[in-house]
Each structure stands twice: as C-alpha cells, then as structure tokens.
C-alpha cells in the first residue's frame, strides 16, 4: 500500500534487477514490521505506565499523522535527489526511533518514538515503492503492494513471540530490528542508484493533494470501501490485541497479536491472488468479505470465542486487501500522469485519516461504553460502510471512461 512515484526520472534497465528488487522489498518489510512491533507491547505499556485506551489510540494516531505528513511532504523527493539518499536518511531516522523505544520510560517517550517512526516510514514509503518499480517494472508494483502488508503482519507476530518467550520484553524486539536495519543500511552501499539527480528538490517538498474532476464520481462510489477497510486496520493495530485478550481471558501478547498478524497477511495474499480481477469485481469481493468477516468477528466477541473471532478476522483480511486494491485501481487510471501523484496523495489522506481518526474515536468510546460495546458499534459501522460500497459497485451500470493519457502504471 504505497504510492507509486513518477517514472520520468528513472534510467531504464536492460533487464529486471531481481537482487535489487528483493533488497528493497525486504527493507520495506523491515520498516513495516517495525511499525507494527509495538502493538503486542501496548498492553505491557498500559500495565506499567497506567494509561487509558484513549491514550493508547492517541499513540497509534500520532504515528499515522506523522507518517501522513511525511508522505505528503517528501513523496517526490527521491525523484530529485535519488532513491538511495532518501532511503539512507529514513534508515537512520528509523534506527533513532527504535532507540527511543528502547529507552522509553513514560508515555511521552513512547509517543515521541511513534512520531519519529511515522516520519521515517512516511519518508521511505514512496522512495522504496519507486525503487521497486525501477528495479522491475512488472513485478515491482506487485511487491510494492504486498511487502508492506506482510511486514505489518510479520512484525506483530515476531514481536509477540519475543515478548512472550524471550527476556527483556520491552527492549529485545527493538534491538533486533535496529540490528537488522543497520545490516540493510550497510548493504545499501552496494545498490545501484536508479535516478539521475535533477533540480527542484526544495520545490518538491510542497504538499500537494488533488482529486481531478473526472475522478470524483468514481471515487465517491468506492470511498466507503476505503474507509471501512482502513478503519478496521486502525482498530486492529490499536485495540485489537486488547480485544483478543479480553475475549479469551488469556493475557498473553502472542495471543493478542494474532488479530494484528492475520488481517494484513491475509490481505496481502488476497492482493496477490486477486490482482488480475477487474476493479469492480475486486471491490465486490472485498466489501462482501468485509461484511461477512465483521459479522463473524462480532459473533466471536459475543460468544467469547477466540477461534470464531480470528476466523472472522481472516475473512475480513481478504476483504481488506481486495477492497483497497479494487478501489485504488478504480480511480488511478482515470487521472492523467501529471496529476496521478497528487491524486495518490489525496487517496492516502483518506486512507490514513480513516485508520487514525476512527481508531481514536473507538479509543475514546471505550472509556465511556467499555471495550466490547465499542467493538459492536465499531464493527457495525465498518460493515455498514462495506455494504454501501458493495451496493454501489453492484448497481454500477457503466465503466468510467479511462483518460487518454494514462499509459503509465498506477
């Protein structure tokens, strides 16, 4: 789930560079694994530092807001100064954030670490996506879509295992990730630069988000699918582990992180499996699976069955990946290349605000309603938004006309 960059500044390779593509994909997985690594630790942080669910979701939202701002500001920077300098700077920033996580002893330090991590992840997102496109123009876009999802799922799972079975539960996972990034940073020196530097770096830092008029109608038909899928993702990354532990009665970080692992990983598999489907079909499959998945998940909460809850999460994960992919492929081809990066920025504003703001609302609601009633309402909203998108896609009679200048990949 990374925005593509413009392709006009890259040097054409005579053949795909699979080693380079693999390196950038693994680095993307590492960054997104680091982003989800704190999630299984949230319960320990709450117990140790005694803060509320509202503050927990605020910590998550601070990461998302920082990522969004960094993405909007630096999205095209690597087109001007090169992929490697941007990636190198982001690696340094990510290692710094992991150091703050390692030494954090209060909620304020935890929030600072999340903000630094959001900035580093936002800066590197578009650069790595563009670098994968440079390395292989056919497999690169697929890897750029799948790697972040796998990274989020794997990061939560590894963190849950280390927190549960290894010593120093609040420190070891951050040390492990920092060492991995240091090694990858050293390997970056062996990677060929794919961009010829050009003027305009400072001007490129001006945030630009714009929805072209031909895109607005189709976007309105699929925006509820985007909001519902990302709202579910935000909930799973912030309150998901607490929900699983509450339903199961087992206070185990590994058990709690299963919801955070399943949703993005199954989403990645669905993107890989359904990537050849027409956008409308992907939206129908995705929103249908979100409706069914949320219904099963809520039944698992009602029956206090972790197996049913996780089954619903896995089914919703299919919808998460398919609905997002279908929505993106519905709108991106309708914009000319000169406006596509600005449209992508606007698209991601919708995505990240859906994940952060609705998760914050859920966190505040838990303080007044309790976790389980909040989950029922939140899940009902996700299902209702998915149903609206499903009906919109089902009743769509005509296919929007593709713009004449849309030959570059979205």
TrEMBL record:
Source species, domain of life: Bacteria
Alphabetically ordered keywords of this record: Cell membrane, Membrane, Transmembrane, Transmembrane helix, Transport
Pfam families assigned: MFS_1
Subcellular location: Cell membrane
Membrane topology: Multi-pass membrane protein
Record-annotated membrane-spanning stretches: 21-37, 49-73, 85-104, 110-133, 145-166, 172-189, 250-274, 281-303, 309-331, 343-364, 376-394
Annotated protein name in UniProt: MFS transporter
Lineage: Bacteria, Pseudomonadati, Pseudomonadota, Gammaproteobacteria, Oceanospirillales
């Amino acid at each position: 789930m990374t925005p593509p960059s413009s392709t006009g500044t890259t040097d054409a390779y005579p053949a795909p560079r699979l080693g380079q593509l693999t390196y950038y994909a693994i680095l993307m997985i590492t960054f997104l694994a680091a982003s989800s690594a704190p999630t299984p630790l949230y319960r320990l942080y709450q117990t140790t530092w005694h803060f509320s669910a509202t503050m927990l979701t605020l910590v998550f939202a601070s990461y998302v807001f920082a990522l969004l701002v960094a993405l909007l500001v630096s999205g095209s920077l690597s087109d001007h100064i090169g992929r490697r300098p941007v990636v190198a700077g982001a690696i340094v920033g990510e290692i710094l954030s992991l150091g703050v996580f390692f030494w954090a002893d209060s909620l304020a330090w935890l929030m600072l670490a999340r903000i630094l991590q959001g900035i580093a992840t936002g800066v590197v997102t578009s650069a790595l996506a563009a670098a994968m496109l440079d390395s292989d123009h056919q497999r690169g876009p697929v890897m750029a879509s799948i790697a972040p999802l796998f990274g989020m799922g794997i990061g939560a799972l590894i963190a849950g295992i280390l927190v549960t079975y290894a010593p120093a539960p609040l420190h070891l996972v951050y040390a492990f990730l920092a060492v991995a990034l240091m090694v990858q940073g050293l390997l970056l020196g062996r990677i060929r630069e794919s961009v010829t530097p050009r003027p305009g770096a400072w001007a490129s830092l001006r945030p630009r988000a714009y929805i072209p008029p031909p895109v607005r109608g189709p976007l309105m038909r699929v925006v509820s699918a985007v909001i519902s899928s990302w709202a579910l993702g935000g909930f799973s990354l912030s309150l998901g582990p607490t929900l699983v532990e509450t339903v199961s009665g087992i206070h185990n970080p590994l058990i709690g992180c299963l919801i955070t692992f399943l949703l993005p990983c199954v989403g990645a598999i669905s993107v890989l499996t359904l990537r050849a489907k027409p956008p409308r079909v992907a939206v129908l499959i995705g929103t249908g699976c979100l409706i069914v998945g949320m219904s099963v998940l809520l039944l698992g909460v009602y029956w206090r069955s972790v197996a049913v809850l996780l089954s619903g999460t896995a089914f919703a994960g299919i919808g998460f990946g398919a609905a997002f992919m279908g929505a993106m492929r519905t709108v991106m081809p309708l914009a000319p290349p000169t406006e596509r990066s600005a449209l992508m920025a606007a698209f991601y504003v919708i995505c990240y605000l859906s994940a952060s703001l609705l998760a914050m609302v859920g966190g505040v609601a838990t303080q007044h309603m309790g976790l389980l009633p909040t989950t029922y309402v939140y899940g009902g909203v996700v299902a209702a938004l998915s149903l609206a998108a499903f009906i919109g896609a089902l009743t769509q009679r005509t296919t929007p006309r593709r713009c004449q200048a849309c030959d570059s990949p979205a």
